[in-house]
Request: fold
Amino acid sequence: MFSYLFSFDAGILTYVSFLITNIAIYAMLGLGLNLQWGFTGLINFGVAGFVAVGAYATVVLSMTGLPLFVSMVAGGLVAAIFGLGLGIATLRLREDYLAIVTIGAAELVRLVVNNESLVDGKPGAIGINGFPLPLANFRPDIFTRYGMVLMLTGVFGLALWKLGHWCRRRLVSVRESKNKVWLTAVTVVGALVLVRADVVTTIAMLNFKDNQVVNGLLFCSVLMAALVFLLVETLVRSPWGRVLKAIREDEEVAKALGKNVFSYKLQSLMIGGFITGIAGAFYAWQQSNVYPDNFKSDLTFNVWILMVLGGAGSNPGVAIGAAIFWIYTTLTRDLSKLLPMVPTSQIDAFRMVFIGLLLIGLMVWRPQGLLGNRDELTLGK
Amino acid sequence: MSAILSATGLVKSFGGVQAVDRADLEVISGSITGLIGPNGAGKTTFFNLLSNFITPDDGIVQFKGDRIDKLQPHRIARKGMVRTFQVARALSRLSVLENLLLATQNQTGETFWNVWTQPKRIALEEKQARDRAMEILDSIGLIQKANDYAGGLSGGQRKLLEIGRAMMTKPELILLDEPAAGVNPTLINQICDYIQYWNRQGVSFLIIEHNMDVIMGLCDRVWVLAEGRNLAVGTPEEIQTNDKVLEAYLGA
Ligand SMILES: Nc1ncnc2c1ncn2[C@@H]1O[C@H](COP(=O)(O)OP(=O)(O)OP(=O)(O)O)[C@@H](O)[C@H]1O
Ligand SMILES: [Mg+2]
Reply:
């Protein structure tokens, strides 16, 4: 367990790189959903559908020779249009229709890509592979590599600074010493994880050519996740975001005060969808193939879990939720090494049961999620 | 003496219940007009029809000379007619201040690409809106609560918040649904003073209220509704001595 945090073994380093990429991708997924649900109150149970649309659009477009990042943006746009379609069809109806239709639409997308042959006349069910990956043929010179290190260090450094800032502010308001210890412990663990992430990515960037595919994706996904984070944070703090929150609280009031509720809901669904679509491109790149089965509803539920875990309505919370979700998954995966006599299938089942129990516990003791605000939940409507 | 708002022959039935049955109403520009009637008379439904929160089965609504009965509710608000709710609705997980800021009209920052293209202008507008909001919060006695969650307000404070939010939109006409219900007498007097103050600044009011002191003290004209129909209209003095009105109230 501690080897992930301290070891410099090449295999472990690669694995942690993979983990960081995963966290970045799922953080993007969580941030997209958080805009829709956490800030606007729209129930999207079709995350996997948005991911699939983004992933397939990006992959297919990039295979026609379109530049990779153009394809990715196009993938995001197609996912946004997917959101537009769902929104126009359902948003004028009662709230729960969106939830129902998104479930169906996601399943529909999966069935379509399963049965359509999108590339070279090959059947959809066998998936697509051999598509271009970001920075896979990139040969950065030493200065470029330093530049990349600097950029990633900037991202982690900023996170670290924010963490310290948050801790100091909370320490002032917290009274009991037990809570102070707890707060400090959480901050220290968070700082350790961030420093470790920075060290691992630094090593990866300096030795970029050792594994261009993994390192290229690592660089791009962390940077993109940071960009998405800035995007949503800026948005939700703006007057635009205030309208979303008002709709979440009570859309009749928003209407009475002259806000076009339907239009804002559409925008939220589309921008959230755009983010999810972009994350979908990374999802495809990371697996270096796309199979219809990669886009089942468990993907949707995992994104919901990490969002609720971190605290819906808090963007830093969702980012942390993504980290915890993947760190948990990784650590429990090693259970099978510790308990060789138990079959892997049982351990897998146990992991799901345990995270379910954790969530139930969280709902009882911290229903607002790890970073959500407790006061908000006790407010009467 | 032109009408800023006029409704003619409004009809709305819910299943078998004829909530509003060919009722008329007129608000003279610059006036404070009252709308009274027994419980269940159809007053709140009438507000919903005026603001198109509920679409009328029949009838015409005109605001500043334009038909608004086919207009979406948010467009009516933007035109300068804002309504409040009888059961006060606070945006719970927004601060009291944010509740008011939201109500500001024509905000550059409410269009999402402007968030990046015009940050300076947005910051300036926010500052102006904040100053105005604080002024309004001061007048409704909620300034100490500015940074608290609106969900923590008491029932009476929520009513005040409703009025404050409505004022924040810089409306030409405000529809108030029982602004004094659940508010303590001292504060009622203060609210009445402010309604008169805002009225002198040119804002017209249409007020539903069961508190007769408020109606008699404020209103230039009073419309009486009973069982969805017009019962009477006149000055407060005329209404007070109208036999039909007394009968409707006492008989109810
Ligand atoms: N959505 C609805 N569905 C069915 N019936 C309704 C609905 N809204 C109102 N009504 C009925 O219409 C009638 C008028 O109701 P309304 O709320 O307009 O009365 P009111 O004059 O505002 O009464 P109060 O003074 O008690 O607020 C009542 O009989 C009520 O039960
Ligand atoms: Mg009523």
